[in-house]
Amino acid sequence: MSDGTVILNSYEGKDEKITLPSTIEGLSVVSVKDYIKMPETVKEVVVPSSVKSLGYGAFNSPSLTKVTLNEGHEIQLS
């Protein structure tokens, strides 16, 4: 995006617990796209405070059991 932010549209890795990045190449991650591509083995996702919105079905993993936000973190759901 031209405002120094980026929308996360995939996550690659093999860990069962993942922490989404707060920045990518110096750009702040502010949103997670609908149905991002991620491994089916992911059981837990930690969302950084930089993320202000989550797309519909953002974490599309059949193994997912937990999503963690920081205390006081406000987020808009699509």
SSE layout:
Blueprint: E1 5-10, E2 17-19, E3 23-24, E4 27-37, E5 44-46, E6 53-54, E7 66-68, E8 76-77
Parallel strand pairs: 1-4, 2-5, 4-6, 5-7, 6-8
Antiparallel strand pairs: 3-4
Describe the structure.
With 78 residues, the protein is mainly beta. It is 0% helix and 41% strand. The chain has strands at 5-10, 17-19, 23-24, 27-37, 44-46, 53-54, 66-68, 76-77. Strands 1, 3, 4, 6 and 8 form a 5-stranded mixed β-sheet that branches. The radius of gyration is 12 Å and the shape is globular. The model has no long low-confidence stretch (mean pLDDT 88).
Summary of the model, kept short:
This protein has 78 residues and is mainly beta. The chain is built from no helices and 8 strands. Strands 1, 3, 4, 6 and 8 form a 5-stranded mixed sheet that branches. The protein has a 3-stranded parallel sheet with strand order 2-5-7, with no helix packed on it.
